[in-house]
Amino acid sequence: MTTDVYKMWVAGAHCEGRAEQIPIEDPSTGEIFAYCHAASAQDVDEAVQQAHAVFKAGSWSRAPRHVRAHVLDKIADLLTANLPRLVDLEVRQTGRAIREMKAQVPTLVKWFKYYASLIRVEERPVLPTMGKLHNWVDRKPLGVVAQITPFNHPLLIAVKKIAPALAAGNSIVLKPSELTPLSSIDLGKIFQEAGIPDGVFNVLPGDGALTGKCLVSHPLVKKVDVTGGTPAGRAIGAIAGGNLAHFTAELGGKAPLIVFGEANIEAAVNGIAFGSFIASGQTCVAATRIIVDNSILSQVVENLKDMAESIERHMGSPKNVDSMMGPLVSAKQLLNVTMLVDDAVMAGIHAVSGGKRLMSKSRLDGTDLSHGYYYPPTVLVDGPDTKIVETKIWKQEAFGPVITVVGFDTEEQAITLANDCDFGLGAAIWTEDISQALRVSDQIEAGICWINTHHRNDPSSPWGGIKSSGVGSENGIDAYHSYTTAKSTILNYASAEERIAGDNWFREGAGDVRYG
To answer: What is the pTM assigned to this prediction?
Structure first.
């Protein structure tokens, strides 16, 4: 079997890295199918210096907005043309089921089209200043921006950062996860063909401790945008703060999903399954804490059990279009999930379904699941003498296909349970009572709250958390503004005579003088 070797993308060309190459593993088989060059400290410095030089030269940073918009639209067209290859690569490096990637990857074009449209129609405000002054405000690009992306949605999360950064005119140095860097590297040629000047977009694979730290601490980096775990986000934020760099972070989550007695149970269970088990539960907004009205708790648990078992029966090769869920991304991720579930079960929590790594052959297509990192959809409920809310898995992020289900009697109890967490990224409410939905959603501590749906994501809709889930948000005009700085230009249009009379601050004699 041929093992491909991927290189870094710097200054419009594939380049060899000076750090040790990274083996890229297929999570469904455990096989190494590619190697990727990684950036050393010297590579990082050279890439940032080149990106800074291109920014100062102005070929992109000072290009007319309609030129930038046209290039973004061209990127969308080229992504569409390259979808089959990109889908296959995402499946291979993440282990995500191809049915998921065929649904997700085509949506990437929306971000480029949205930000192309935004900069075409962006208005420059003129502020209501005192006197004969016009004060208008322009948005100026920051310079070189560093973007750190995770393994779970390699292309989607990268694009959510790249599109507004390019629209604003910045130069980008992207460090993808060392587990899934390949599709991000492939963006380089696509962007070049679309018309992005060489050096404006760069991809430096590598681990966080070396490549990532060197990148975010570089003095020429004017903004750091990271998606990842909360501990890493805190550490990166401290470094960025030391350099007075702008900072955006989308970090961990432990999303609550409340099901009220007024909900349609079938719709709610479908929503829970999607919110919990898509991407094998490896999403920051995964619905992991299911909070259900006691009047319907037993029925919801039974339906979830049936759904989980059905998904497990349909787990096979990620390349199989009939496979419903793939493996976890790595042995490390599998171990984390296993330890948290085992801890809960040993404490007396009951696993209604799942709870053990899959080691048999797939009932769907005969794939030997023991070769990959397959973990089944798992539903945990209170044991006879143990409450889930007293275990680690209630508050710690497993990042796997595991949900905890607890009951409640009143709205107040449901809200308290939902907010019983250090994270505050996503949340969801299921009910047919719209008054109840609005009343409760207003009290949920989360940056995103869905009602009768989950994991909806649109380029126009802000996506960010509170508490330990991050700082700032992706998407929408806020993300574009976060990649710019406001520049005020103030013009005095009074006549020369008026200016001489009113602005001679140090004239002799008494009389009123202005200030401001």
So the answer is: 0.95
